[in-house]
């Protein structure tokens, strides 16, 4: 291909990959183009990477830009009046190219490392032949130079320049593909791809020739490539034809000769002898159209349809000649016949006759069997195997459409490609279409089905245009008002503090020690809480009415406070009627405040949220790429369910507020809040910032954080002198890095600062709702009647007798909550009936129980790890998520400081960042478990909550495990966690441990004194009580 250097007045376009190249280009005074390479080698004009979907848009945008440039004459300026603007120089033309590129949307998935194309061209661009992104069209790595035109001779940039560059690119690839095929080093599939590439280049060359471009070299190159490829194909066909005789299934006028049809993408019989020279470009294009080797129908095909009996006979012969040309030809014939019938049936509305349906199903069954035989007989190339699988899917899909009188579903696909289907391209469309995959017989296999089919999960798709959440501000301030009261009163000597101090009602919760931080409680589910809940709701409502926040100040001293209190706390009262009867009534905002408090207190939303554990049941998703800033459910400790969210808006608002109270604001989040604050008016700035200072100042003055707590913090607590430097909003400077650091230490956990950030930056954007939603539950997942029910028999006999779904689970405690379609089949293996009794016996044989005792300021996870080391444990199975508050890696580092190195060589744990099991040794080295010289039998192993189901590690024969218990651990979760010790009861032993509140619950269920010795029998009684309660909640 000619390599034209840029000359004054011309433009050279070089396409390169973004991952290796970046260049700067400009024009000199004399109009020449100079290049400066920032990286890599060579001098090129950087124009970026185009995907297949972008090509049409780029061509249109570039053509429009160049057409506008062509309207100017000589050195005319682009601006009116000849003032500012760019002259018609190469730099200006390059700017137009970049402008056209900028009009396309960025697609990060297309910017992948380029690879050498191996396939042909489709109607949308380069086909890379089986790559993970087959139609992404990442261009080859090396620079591809192409002359875009002679602007100096044309006097203006031509809109056809890009098309000419595209032809050069195609030709460049073709010239590298042909030698591989001719020399015999490429597959027959590549031969057909090269033929298609030749036709594509010839077609583009014909279009350019019509527009008076000199494309003689393109035509000559296409003719030479065509001759070489036809010769190579003829040689291959001659060698393959000697192995088998094709059956006589076609008329004598077939272009392939008597008794043969075309073969798809494989060994192809020659259509006609190659023409050495001449014929012209139009005849060459027509000949190439006939030679596209992908299931084209001969124009001389006799009218009518082949009987199904002939198809069955051909398929029978195919099974006897597995892997041969005969078998491939028979498969091709059935495929062509199915598509031909579908094309003829586009306008049909009625279903096929029952007898024809039976025959059709029989043919499809025979086809699938022959296809399977052919795959095992000789089609060993991966690309050929992929093509065969795709063809099988398509035949079944088309047959299903015909049976259901829905052949029109295939119309867009067949209309685009015609009956001459290019399988390499059609495969991507078919396999990305759920309809095509659903057309195949299948059986659903569900592992850990009790978890997959859990009733609490829903799959929801939003429908419609999103709108703002009604009364969003009122809901948020009501939630924050109640949590401020709880933080202020929970640990005091007032009525609320005394109530929460009762045994079994609540435990302290909050970050602790931070200025202005949340110092609330976590409510403990149980009888004690149920008895205290009505009084707690009453006390919280009275406290809010007595000292409401500024936005709800209208409540203070309201003459109908008793009625308001009843509306907020009493579900039996008709709140709407009562509020309507108030003298003078309430405004819309005041009414929203009352109803928001009612939802949180009377309807139990606040009580429900306060029972959940931060970073175990809920939390903020801080993973890279997280899309929402609201709190999300957690599947296990430190394992957010990234695609889930809370459907109930008040729960979402409350849990989000609690999550940020516990987590605090990052430096960036606080900076965003400060910028929003400084964007308000001066009075509003001072009012909001005064609330921040009112919460922070007492803690800073008292030095409330203990040294033990702050020893783990990266920065010390701020002093009163530092606080004085930022005690007014006018002193805030977000450009001062040291001051921002100080503000972060002061206000990262400040409840008022968190409230402001949530109300201004998060809730308005994240709480939008949709008018409708589509919901799927575990019932939909299990409801899988065989998709071929409308056909008398399944397409594959082996699937006909199989159930629509088969599931497996290690426990059956939740079988009463499973969808009604699910049936237990313990009769499959009678020994399964003894599973529950065996596990219970094993646990009863391991009676020892511990209670974690924490010191002042000590975290629960630290006390737990110290206990595990002190008791000589080999494994810690965190069923109760007591390691919440630290990462697995931090826990492993803490253990390495305590380990007895004479016994343990390291710690084995699951690294969340690396997403694999890791072994850490005392020297600080971390290696993947599979490549580490230290085996897990030599380590103290951590099973975090997420790995308490399904994880399988080889612990030593006499290993001792420590299993933690959570506030509501059920029997199935307890059994699954105990199963991490694979030889439990056969040399391995287990001990259990719980916090003080869990110990008290176990004692109450067992009817024992609080200081009585607890064994595994009492633990099982308590776990069974939790299971019964969970089942009741699920049923009701």
Automatic annotation (TrEMBL):
What's the Enzyme Commission number for this chain?
A: 3.4.19.12
Q: Where is this region: Disordered?
A: 110-129
Q: Name one GO biological process term.
A: proteolysis
Tell me a Gene Ontology molecular-function term this record carries: cysteine-type deubiquitinase activity
Recorded catalytic activity of this chain's protein: Thiol-dependent hydrolysis of ester, thioester, amide, peptide and isopeptide bonds formed by the C-terminal Gly of ubiquitin (a 76-residue protein attached to proteins as an intracellular targeting signal)
- Carries keyword Calcium? no
Keywords, in A-Z order:
Hydrolase, Protease, Thiol protease, Ubl conjugation pathway
Q: Give the DUF3638 domain ranges.
A: 439-491
Which InterPro entries does the UniProt entry name for this protein? DUF3638, DUF3645, OTU_Deubiquitinase
Where does the DUF3645 domain start and stop, copy by copy? 627-656
Highest taxon listed in the record's lineage = Eukaryota
* PANTHER family (alphabetical): P-LOOP CONTAINING NUCLEOSIDE TRIPHOSPHATE HYDROLASE PROTEIN, UBIQUITIN THIOESTERASE
Q: Which protein, by its recorded name, is this?
A: ubiquitinyl hydrolase 1
Could you tell me which species this protein originates from?
Answer: Chlorella variabilis
């Amino acid at each position: 291909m000619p390599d034209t250097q840029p000359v004054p007045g011309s433009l050279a376009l070089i396409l390169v990959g973004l991952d290796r190249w970046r260049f700067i280009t400009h024009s000199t005074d004399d109009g020449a183009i100079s290049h400066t390479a920032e990286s890599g080698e060579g001098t090129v004009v950087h124009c970026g990477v185009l995907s297949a979907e972008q090509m049409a848009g780029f061509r249109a945008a570039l053509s429009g830009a160049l057409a506008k440039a062509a309207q100017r004459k000589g050195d005319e300026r682009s601006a009116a009046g000849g003032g500012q603007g760019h002259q018609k120089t190469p730099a200006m033309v390059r700017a137009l190219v970049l402008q056209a590129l900028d009009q396309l949307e960025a697609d990060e998935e297309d910017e992948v490392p380029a690879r050498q194309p191996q396939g042909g061209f489709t109607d949308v661009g380069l086909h890379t032949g089986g790559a993970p992104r087959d139609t992404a069209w990442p261009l080859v790595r090396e620079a591809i130079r192409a002359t875009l035109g002679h602007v100096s001779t044309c006097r203006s940039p031509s809109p056809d320049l890009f098309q000419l560059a595209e032809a050069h690119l195609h030709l460049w690839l073709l010239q590298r593909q042909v030698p591989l095929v001719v020399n015999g080093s490429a597959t027959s599939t590549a031969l057909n791809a090269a033929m298609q590439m030749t036709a594509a280049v010839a077609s583009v060359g014909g279009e350019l020739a019509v527009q008076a471009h000199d494309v003689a070299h393109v035509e000559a190159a296409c003719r030479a490539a065509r001759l070489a490829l036809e010769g190579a194909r003829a040689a291959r066909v001659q060698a393959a034809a000697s192995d088998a005789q094709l059956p006589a299934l076609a008329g004598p006028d077939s272009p392939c000769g008597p008794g043969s049809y075309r073969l798809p993408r494989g060994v192809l019989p020659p259509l006609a002898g190659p023409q050495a020279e001449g014929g012209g470009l139009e005849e060459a294009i027509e000949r190439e159209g006939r030679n596209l080797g992908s299931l084209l129908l001969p124009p001389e095909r006799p009218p009518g349809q082949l009987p199904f009996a002939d198809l069955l006979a051909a398929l029978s012969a195919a099974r006897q000649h597995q892997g041969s040309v005969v078998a491939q030809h028979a498969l091709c014939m059935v495929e062509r016949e199915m598509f031909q019938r579908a094309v003829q049936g586009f306008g049909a509305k009625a279903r096929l006759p029952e007898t024809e349906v039976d025959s059709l199903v029989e043919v499809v069954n025979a086809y699938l069997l022959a296809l399977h035989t052919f795959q095992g007989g000789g089609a060993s190339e991966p690309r050929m195997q992929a093509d065969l699988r795709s063809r099988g899917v398509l035949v079944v899909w088309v047959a299903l459409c015909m049976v259901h009188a829905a052949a029109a579903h295939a119309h867009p696909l067949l209309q685009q490609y015609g009956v001459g289907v290019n399988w390499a391209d059609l495969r991507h469309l078919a396999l990305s279409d759920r309809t095509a995959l659903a057309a195949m017989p299948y059986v659903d296999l569900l592992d850990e089905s009790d978890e997959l089919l859990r009733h609490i999960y829903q799959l929801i798709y939003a429908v419609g245009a999103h709108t703002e959440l009604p009364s969003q501000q009122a809901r948020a301030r009501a939630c924050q008002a109640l949590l401020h009261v709880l933080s202020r009163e929970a640990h005091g000597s007032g009525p609320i503090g005394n109530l929460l101090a009762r045994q079994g009602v609540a435990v302290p919760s909050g970050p602790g020690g931070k200025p202005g931080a949340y110092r609330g409680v976590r409510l403990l589910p149980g009888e004690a809480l149920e008895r205290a809940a009505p009084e707690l709701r009453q006390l919280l409502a009275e406290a809010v009415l007595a000292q409401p926040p500024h936005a709800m100040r209208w409540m203070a001293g309201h003459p109908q406070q008793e009625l308001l209190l009843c509306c907020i706390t009493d579900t039996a009262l008709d709140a709407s009627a009562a509020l309507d009867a108030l003298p003078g009534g309430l405004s819309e905002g005041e009414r929203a405040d009352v109803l928001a408090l009612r939802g949180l207190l009377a309807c139990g939303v606040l009580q429900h949220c306060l029972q959940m554990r931060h970073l175990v049941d809920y939390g903020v998703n801080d993973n890279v790429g997280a899309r929402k800033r609201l709190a999300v459910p957690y599947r296990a400790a430190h394992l957010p369910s990234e695609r889930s969210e809370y459907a109930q808006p008040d729960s979402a608002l409350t849990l989000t507020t609690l999550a940020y109270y516990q987590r605090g604001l990052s430096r960036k989040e606080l900076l965003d809040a400060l910028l929003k604050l400084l964007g308000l008016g001066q009075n509003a700035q001072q009012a909001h910032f005064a609330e921040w200072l009112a919460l922070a100042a007492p803690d800073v003055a008292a030095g409330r954080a203990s040294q033990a707590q702050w020893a783990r913090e990266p920065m010390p607590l701020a002093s009163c002198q530092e606080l004085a430097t930022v005690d007014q909003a006018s002193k805030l400077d977000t450009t001062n890095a040291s001051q921002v650091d100080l503000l972060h230490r002061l206000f990262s956990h400040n409840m008022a600062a968190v409230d402001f950030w949530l109300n201004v930056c998060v809730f308005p954007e994240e709480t939008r709702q949709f008018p409708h939603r589509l919901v799927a539950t575990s019932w939909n997942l299990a409801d899988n009647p065989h998709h071929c029910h409308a056909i008398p028999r399944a397409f594959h006999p082996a699937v006909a007798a199989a159930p629509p779904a088969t599931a497996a689970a290690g426990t059956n405690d939740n079988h009463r909550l499973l969808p009604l379609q699910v049936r237990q089949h313990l009769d499959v293996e009678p020994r399964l009936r003894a599973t529950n009794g065996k596990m219970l016996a094993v646990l009863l044989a391991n009676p020892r129980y511990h209670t974690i005792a924490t010191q002042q300021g000590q975290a629960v996870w630290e006390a737990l790890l110290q206990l595990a080391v002190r008791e000589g444990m080999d494994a810690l199975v965190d069923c109760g998520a007591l390691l919440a508050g630290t990462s697995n890696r931090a826990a492993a580092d803490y253990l390495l400081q305590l380990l007895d190195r004479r016994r343990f060589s390291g710690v084995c744990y699951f690294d969340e960042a690396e997403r694999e099991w890791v072994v850490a040794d005392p020297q600080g080295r971390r290696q993947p478990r599979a490549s580490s010289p230290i085996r897990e039998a030599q380590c103290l192993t951590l099973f975090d909550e997420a790995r308490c189901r399904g994880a399988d590690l080889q612990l030593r024969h006499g290993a001792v495990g420590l299993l933690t218990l959570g506030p509501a651990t059920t029997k199935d979760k307890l059994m699954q966690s105990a199963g991490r010790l694979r030889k439990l009861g056969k040399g391995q032993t287990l001990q259990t441990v719980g916090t003080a509140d869990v110990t008290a619950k176990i004692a109450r269920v067992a009817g024992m004194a609080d200081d009585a010795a607890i064994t595994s029998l009492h633990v099982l009684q308590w776990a069974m009580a939790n299971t019964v309660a969970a089942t009741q909640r699920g049923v009701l």
